[in-house]
Write a structure and sequence with these properties.
The protein contains 30 helices and 39 strands. With 1003 residues, the protein is an alpha/beta fold. The radius of gyration is 29 Å and the shape is globular.
């Protein structure tokens, strides 16, 4: 339904009571017509009474549909919340073994892909003059059929994104029938991981990694909380191993991160080892040598032959840049843990010799006896089915040689990730067809564009990992009615009867034979739809060292890195660029740099001083393959001889939020595959200072705490020794002379708030945030945007500090207890819902007030925008609407049609001049209370989960009633690790932070 603007005109006579009731009893267009309001410019449609509502749709009551996230290869399960026929929120599916009910920022933002205002809405063809012409579907399909017929035997290629289910099988079958080839292209396909496994064990399978059982985790650049394989699932499992749990058997796991750059994953590390780039595999082999030589673990019999071949620590210490003694300590601790887990194969560590690093990590796991325990091989991950970058490079060579007459592309955008080579080769292809949802670079260069359904509108399935058969179902009608499922188009072009849903169900009949357990297919199918798929255990396989393991012994450091080394790392939010058209992700601060809406180059402070660079200075980065201009961000989290830039930006198309923004880091990379068949993401560059300057839209406050102890920490031994009732962080902070006055004022406030809204004792809503679990991933921030209709304001207003996010993740740099090393502390910061809230007494119109259940309420239509409350808030968590972000067509419009369809109807969209802040998702609180009343019971612990707590992959946030002593949040509030931020101000927050627990000597 299109958005109509109501323009009231002067009535000929004043409205009487009868006319008023007539208007009040009508809805939509009829109400406007009766009140003499002009609904324009579109003609008024017929008013259809809602007498017989659609099946399963009750006005005001949400319906949930299970489906699968397709924002990356992980394949997390989703629950789509639908209100009145439109999806308004995405949550994780608790039944999915991949994400167990949790969801990252990219998964949350899939909603903005569905409602994106820059989607392809109709079939389009490029005319003779180069202009786009709208087609009917019959004409479009006819043109494609004609091109297929003409190109048979002359070279047909179909490039798709990663498709591990029925759609990929359909493409394979169709290409086989017409003599074409199917190339699967995933920019982050982890070819080095697969090749390294093949070198070590003779199998390119991707194993499952049991982070939850590990006691010592060693990551060689595998950023498992960001883009490596399954970030949500691995982050959840990592937290279960690494977070402190008082009283549990065994100590918390130790995490060591090895790499020249500190990533989001590395920020959670207990120790950061900083080797020379390209030498990490030598460090892993030296650790394996120590374990074998000192017999620190019972080695498998076939591992003994490596003992005299592996390099010792003294031999490689100089080349790696890590002391021999430190290497020996790491190896001994790894073996002594009896649960070591070494992971490698991340994109940022994908050197030209990246496969050797993976093979070396495999050897380390193997000699420590952990293969088959924390590392389990078997046909496991969807990426095993992905093609390699070499396959795409070979296709590009054939395109350039004019061997391809017809090229089809679906679910991939090589025009952005391989900008120069692919774009040039497209000019030598006879006819180009893009089946796409968006006008990205590849679609913009095509001859025919066929608008595809968004994954939330379509039927499909996938096999993200062994034992998981994930289903996708349309959770709402198509946003744009003239789009079609690419599978339906292919079946029509191929002359097959039925649609893609029929094809999908045919494939699932084979699964019914295996997993039906006597049920009819209809019951089996409906159960799978309800649960999001089929979940079963996958058997593990035994592996032994392969014949090519000797390749490791002759490996040397990457000699291609001659000048300044540049690491191109995947953006946490924007990924390879597919997230750049979603404003939530553009405005989400990078967890490390806190920069929004633009790219940057990371430079060490010593290097910046040497080159006389300041934050925002623009430098020219030039590699043998291309050049980009990037603003400098100075950070201690990188080696002095290394630079780093993120992917994701620099689009030449892809809609209003992505086009012509920043630089494309892929332009610096080689278009040729490395030895392992993938792409090297580390190159040598020259750096030239341009003299230009660009301010960075960052949401970073002060990078250090300046003695405020915002993020408290305890050594492990001290935390384990704490007893109930002990509170090492809580002191007498209020002078005795002032305490009586404060308590009297608080009692008066409570009496004024006691309006008897609810029968019985009022709850006191509170929250506990465990900083031993929080990783700073920012999934909570995006979930808050989605739930609470928070406006995105854009780069210009971010630079003026006018951001609207109710929740922020503060990141602080720290040194270790002995003054050495770099550590990072993070904390979520939101409205503390203070008992003695400084914001409330200064509001001249009582817009800020205290509710009977302890919330700091905000009456939007009472607020006059003095901003006194914001000035008086010590936590700086109140935000002012400087503009009307909901004004259609306005300069600062945040939800252009149809993006406004994602707005939560339970939350007011705030207007210009109004202050807003976190409400603890009060709409969820009131909904749970109303449901409890209907069922004649009290609200139970766990009935209410704010959006931030529901999304958090680490389960770091707990919410509930502090007045219920048995609730989880009340127990955590009494935890000895608990403290309040800025407790000396005596604001008495409702949020209790649980101090970080660090291994002795950490920060």
């Amino acid at each position: 339904m299109s958005r109509a603007t109501a323009r009231c005109v002067t009535t000929e006579a004043p409205m009487d009571r009868r006319r008023f009731l007539t208007v009040l009893g009508a809805t939509g267009g009829a109400a406007a017509a009766a009140s003499a309001c002009d609904i324009g410019p579109e003609p008024t449609e017929h008013l259809v009474p809602y007498v017989v509502p659609p099946e399963n749709q009750v006005p005001g009551i949400a319906t949930y549909y299970a489906t699968t996230c397709r924002e990356c290869a992980a394949g997390c399960g989703l629950h789509a919340k639908v209100r009145e026929g439109r999806v308004i929120k995405l949550e994780g599916n608790p039944e999915s073994p991949i994400n167990q009910g949790r969801l990252c920022s990219r998964g949350q933002a899939a909603l903005q892909g569905l409602y994106n205002p820059d989607r392809v809405t109709d079939p389009m063809a490029r005319g003779a003059n180069g202009q786009w012409q709208k087609l009917t579907w019959d004409d479009a399909v006819g043109r494609l059929q004609a091109q297929v017929k003409q190109a048979r035997g002359k070279g047909i290629a179909f490039v798709t994104g990663l498709e591990s289910g029925s759609f990929g099988e359909l493409v394979d079958a169709w290409m086989k029938e017409i003599g074409g080839r199917h190339v699967t292209y995933e920019p982050f396909a982890f070819e080095a991981l697969r090749e390294g496994n093949r070198i070590a064990f003779g199998t390119a399978a991707i194993p499952s990694y049991d982070f939850a059982s590990a006691r010592y985790i060693l990551s060689f650049g595998a950023d498992f909380m960001e883009t490596w394989l399954s970030p949500v699932g691995y982050q959840n499992a990592f937290t279960r191993a690494h977070a402190f749990e008082a009283g549990r058997d065994g100590s918390m796991a130790k995490f060591v991160y090895v790499g020249p750059r500190l990533s989001l994953t590395g920020m959670s590390a207990d120790e950061w080892i900083v080797p020379k780039p390209g030498t990490e595999f030598m460090l892993a082999l030296a650790m394996a040598s120590v374990i074998l030589t000192e017999r620190l673990a019972p080695p498998p019999p076939d591992a003994l032959r490596l003992q005299h071949l592996l390099p010792g620590p003294e031999r490689i210490a100089g080349s790696v840049g890590v002391e021999a003694g430190k290497i020996q300590r790491l190896a001994r601790d790894f073996a002594a843990s009896k649960g070591g887990l070494a992971v490698a194969g991340g994109i940022a560590a994908q050197y030209g010799s990246g496969a050797l690093l993976v093979a070396a990590a495999n050897v380390l796991n193997y000699v420590a006896g952990q293969v088959g325990k924390t590392v389990k091989f078997g046909p496991n991950h969807a990426l095993e089915a992905a093609g390699s970058f070499k396959h795409l490079a070979d296709l590009v060579a054939d395109m350039r040689a004019e061997k391809i007459s017809l090229l089809l592309v679906h679910g991939a955008n090589p025009g952005h990730s391989l900008p120069a080579a692919f774009s040039e080769a497209l000019g030598h292809v006879g006819y180009k067809v893009s089946l796409a949802s968006y006008w990205h670079e590849t679609a913009a260069a095509a001859d025919l564009v066929l608008p595809d359904f968004h994954p939330l509108e379509q039927w499909n399935d996938s096999r993200p990992q062994a034992g998981v058969y994930a289903l996708q179902q349309p959770v709402m009608q198509p946003v744009f009615p003239n789009t079609r499922h690419a599978g339906d188009v292919l079946l029509q072009v191929a002359g097959k009867s039925g649609g893609f849903k029929d094809y999908l169900q045919t494939r699932w009949r084979a699964l019914h034979v295996r997993y039906g357990h006597g049920r009819s297919f209809e019951d089996f199918w409906n159960d799978a739809l309800q649960h999001g798929g089929i979940y079963s255990e996958a058997p593990a396989q035994t592996v032994r060292l392969g014949p090519e393991i000797s390749r490791l012994m002759g490996g040397a450091a990457d000699t291609s890195l001659q000048l300044t080394t540049l690491i191109v790392f995947p953006s946490v939010a924007l990924h390879d660029g597919r997230g750049a058209n979603k404003p939530w992700l553009q405005e989400l601060p990078d967890p490390v740099s806190k920069i929004t809406w633009h790219g940057w180059v990371e430079v060490h402070p010593d290097t910046a001083a040497k080159w006389q660079l300041a934050n925002g200075d623009v430098v020219l980065l030039k590699s043998p393959h291309g050049a980009v201009r990037a603003p400098v961000w100075i950070t201690p989290g990188i080696r002095p001889d290394v630079l780093a830039v993120p992917t994701g930006q620099g689009h030449k198309a892809y809609g209003r939020y992505a086009k012509d923004r920043s630089f494309n880091a892929f332009e610096l990379l080689s278009p040729d595959p490395a030895d392992f068949g993938g792409r090297a993401f580390v190159v040598s560059v020259t750096v030239t200072k341009t003299g230009d300057h660009r301010s960075l839209a960052t949401l970073e406050g002060d990078p250090r705490e300046l003695g405020e102890d915002i993020v408290r920490a305890l050594p492990l031994t001290q935390a384990a020794a704490l007893k109930v009732g002990q509170h090492p962080f809580r002191e007498e902070v209020v002078p005795g002379t002032a305490k009586g006055a404060l308590e009297g004022w608080a009692e008066a406030q409570r009496q004024r708030a006691n309006l008897d809204y609810y029968a019985g004792a009022h709850p006191r809503w509170g929250m506990a945030i465990d900083l031993a679990k929080c990783t700073g991933c920012s999934a909570c921030v995006t979930a808050c945007y989605a739930e609470n209709n928070i406006a995105t304001v854009g780069e210009d207003l971010i630079l003026r500090r006018r951001q609207m996010a109710w929740m922020r993740i503060e990141r602080y740099w720290r040194s270790a207890a002995d003054g050495s090393g770099l550590h990072v502390a993070v904390t979520p910061m939101l409205c503390q819902q203070c008992t003695l809230a400084p914001c409330e007494p200064v509001c001249p119109v009582f817009a800020a007030y205290h509710t009977p259940d302890g919330l700091n309420g905000q009456v939007y239509n009472r607020c006059v925008g003095t901003r006194y409350c914001s000035n008086n808030c010590p936590y700086k968590v109140r935000h002012f609407n400087w503009y009307d972000y909901a004004e259609p067509g306005g300069e600062w419009e945040s939800w252009p049609d149809p993006l406004n369809m994602l707005l939560n109807p339970d939350v007011t969209v705030r207007e210009k001049g109004v202050m807003e802040k976190c409400t603890f998702c009060v709409q969820r609180i009131r909904g749970a209370q109303n449901q409890a009343r209907l069922e004649d019971r009290n609200v139970r612990d766990g009935d209410i989960t704010p959006s931030c707590a529901q999304a958090c992959p680490s389960e770091a946030i707990v919410f509930g009633d502090l007045h219920d002593p048995t609730s989880r949040v009340a127990r955590l509030a009494r935890d000895p690790r608990g403290y309040h931020v800025l407790e000396e101000l005596n604001t008495q927050p409702a949020i209790t932070y649980l101090a970080r627990v660090v291994h002795d000597g950490g920060a």
